[in-house]
Design brief:
By secondary structure, the chain is mainly beta. It has no helices and 11 strands. A hairpin with a 5-residue loop joins strand 5 and strand 6.
Length: 122
C-alpha cells in the first residue's frame, strides 16, 4: 500500500485547509485510515480516523468540532477538512493506514504518507 498526502500550506489563524490522502496498491487490506500530526519536539499525535468499511469516524480532543474527515471510496482518497485553524495546529500532518482494528495508537498503523506541512501564523 502506498499513501500520498498533500494539501498543506501556510494559513492565518481562523483559516481553513483541506488535506488529501490517496491510497494505491493492495487497498483491500486496509481497515482504517487515520491522520496524525507531529510538531517539532513533540510526539506524534492522533488527529482523526475513518474506518474504511462502515465510515465510522473519530477525532482527537484538540480538533473536535473544527476538523472533519471524509472519504471518496471511488478515488481511494481520504480528506481532512480543517477549519478555524489555530497556531497550535502547526505541525507536519501524516495520513496512515492499517489492516488492524481501529486504534488511536500510531504504532498500529503500517503504512504512512510522506507528510505535509501545515503552518498557522499571522
Amino acid at each position: 500500500v502506498r499513501l500520498v498526502d498533500s494539501g498543506g500550506g501556510l494559513v492565518q489563524p481562523g483559516g481553513s485547509l483541506r488535506l488529501s490522502c490517496t491510497a494505491s496498491g493492495d487497498i483491500s487490506t486496509i481497515n482504517d485510515m487515520g491522520w496524525f500530526r507531529q510538531a517539532p519536539g513533540k510526539e506524534r499525535e492522533f488527529v482523526a480516523a475513518s474506518t474504511w468499511i462502515g465510515g465510522g469516524t473519530d477525532y482527537g480532543n484538540p480538533v473536535k468540532g473544527r476538523f472533519t474527515v471524509s472519504r471518496d471510496n471511488a478515488k481511494n482518497t481520504v480528506f481532512l477538512q480543517m477549519n478555524n485553524l489555530k497556531p497550535e495546529d502547526t505541525a507536519v500532518y501524516y495520513c496512515a493506514a492499517t489492516g488492524r482494528p481501529y486504534s488511536r495508537d500510531y504504532s498500529t498503523y503500517d503504512y504512512w504518507g510522506q507528510g505535509t506541512q501545515v503552518t498557522v501564523s499571522s
